[in-house]
Write a structure and sequence with these properties.
about 475 residues; mainly alpha; Sodium/glucose cotransporter; 19 helices; globular; Sodium:solute symporter; transmembrane; Na/Glc_symporter_sf; transmembrane helix
Length: about 475
């Protein structure tokens, strides 16, 4: 990983190289990188943990992510490429003004930071089981490697390491861990005989949990900063679109494999105190030395790739959407991006010492992202009549309702996003329709999102579109 970081450093000569790998990736590198940013610790360590607890229905978390990443390619790739927008706050700013950029930046930085934290926790979990290290020391080791190659070369380094990590975890999960674990417990018939029927039901995890995962990870992933930034590493719209769909198919299969490994692990190791230890415990129980190392490397690769992708997403929002409006082009240099990435990494490391659950950290972050930003982002891209007031009120209402239910029902409960997203939608639609009824008749139809001028005030965009029509 460090060698790949050095190679990436030699390629990162401009801010665009550092943040979006120069926008030059072909189908294989792009699909590999997009898959690895999806399949992190929550999908690998957490997915097998859910399979250990619930059986095949434990794949719903990863399946929701897979559907979300495919949807980004189908629905968003064309608009974002044509509009030249690669951060979520920038998209909202172009449609709804500077206030929406600041509000959304806070939510996006929190989300990307917390998902990065979850990956550091996942690395610590694996290293603690395998080497007997303390949790803090294990997290520090994993974090240090990630930061060395990420700060060195930015997205170029991250992409090169992603391709290596993609190959490692494909072999480690599909060719090694899945077949050997299922074989060790006597195959699928033996698993059916040993485990409750619910372990083979697609809804065994519960319809409420499935619904929450869908709201959180399908809708949330469609506006995930790491995924938007990856879209722009592709060399064309076609590569961005179909590579995301291919990544979604791969991720769905990965989720099923993880759930089956976890279910087999329940037969093999029925009394684990912490389900998050299932991945390393199963690997240690069924794999010989050497092969065991490959599978552990697969878990570490999954967490490292997602952590690096999300942390650079957080630092990009900081430099592009918060610092650049204040400091101008000085915030767009490679040096500024490196400093921001290192600062974000240090904060993530500090937070990781306080978190214990891989899936929990992702859930808290995705709750706020989906509840606060999904509706206004979709409105910005697809509803031309949506208003600035509606966007600001929607972000505030969805976020507030989400935070209230986190306090009332618990951080990891299903209710925050289930109530936050509808609140955001009702406010967004209601305020927009109220403004249209109260406004003057015969208003000019606003321009499409991709026709908006970068950096211009939304009112100026609408005015310029009207001038063009008049001419």
């Amino acid at each position: 990983m460090v060698v790949a970081g050095y190679i990436g450093m030699r390629r990162s000569r401009t801010a665009q190289d550092f943040t979006v790998a120069g926008r030059r990736l072909g189908p294989f590198m792009y699909t590999s990188a997009m898959s690895t940013v999806v399949l992190g610790g929550a999908s690998t360590v957490g997915g097998i943990s859910l399979g250990y607890q619930y059986g095949v229905s434990g794949m719903w978390l990863v399946l929701s992510l897979a559907l979300g990443i495919a949807a980004i390619g189908v629905f968003f790739a064309g608009k974002l490429f044509r509009g030249g927008v690669y951060t979520v706050p920038e998209a909202l700013h172009r449609r709804f003004g500077a206030e929406s950029r600041v509000m959304s930046s806070a939510v996006v930085v929190f989300y990307t930071l917390m998902v990065g934290v979850s990956q550091i926790v996942a690395i610590g979990t694996v290293l603690t089981v395998v080497f007997g290290m303390s949790t803090g020391a294990a997290a520090l080791v994993g974090w240090a490697v990630i930061m060395v190659y990420s700060v060195a070369g930015g997205m170029w380094s991250i992409t090169l390491t992603d391709v290596i990590q993609f190959l490692i975890k494909t072999v480690g999960i599909f060719a090694v861990l899945l077949p050997l674990t299922v074989h060790a417990v006597g195959g699928l018939p033996a698993m059916r005989a040993e485990l409750p029927d619910s372990y083979f039901s697609p809804t065994g995890i519960g319809l409420g949990t499935i619904g929450a995962y869908f709201l959180l990870f399908f809708f949330g992933f469609m506006i995930d900063q790491g995924n938007w930034q990856r879209l722009f590493t592709a060399r064309s719209v076609a590569v961005a679109r179909w590579g995301a769909v291919a990544s979604g198919v791969y991720c769905a299969l990965y989720g099923l494999a993880g759930a089956l490994v976890g279910a087999a692990g329940r037969v093999l190791l029925p009394d684990l105190a912490n389900p998050d230890d299932a991945y390393a415990g199963i690997a240690e129980a069924v794999l010989p030395v050497g092969v065991f190392g490959l599978v552990i490397a697969a878990a570490l690769a999954a967490s490292m790739s997602t952590a690096s992708g999300l942390l650079i997403g957080s630092s990009t929002v900081l430099t592009n959407d918060l610092l650049r409006p204040l400091a101008g082009e000085r915030a767009s240099t490679v040096r500024a991006n490196r400093i921001a990435l290192l600062a974000v990494g240090l904060v993530a490391l500090a937070i990781s010492f306080t978190m214990s659950s891989v899936v929990g950290a992702v859930t808290v972050a995705a709750d706020l992202l989906a509840a606060g930003l999904f509706v206004p982002v979709v409105g910005a891209l697809f509803w031309r009549r949506a208003t600035r007031a509606a966007a600001l009120a929607s972000i505030a209402a969805g976020s507030a309702v989400c935070l209230v239910f986190m306090a009332v029902s618990g951080l990891y409960a299903n209710e925050p996003v289930m109530y936050g997203m509808p609140a955001s939608l009702v406010v967004f639609v209601g305020v927009t329709l109220a403004a249209r009824r109260g406004g003057p008749g015969g208003q000019v139809r606003p321009p499409a999102f991709e026709d908006l001028a970068p950096g211009a005030d939304p009112a100026a965009n609408a005015q310029s579109a009207e001038s063009a029509r008049s001419a």
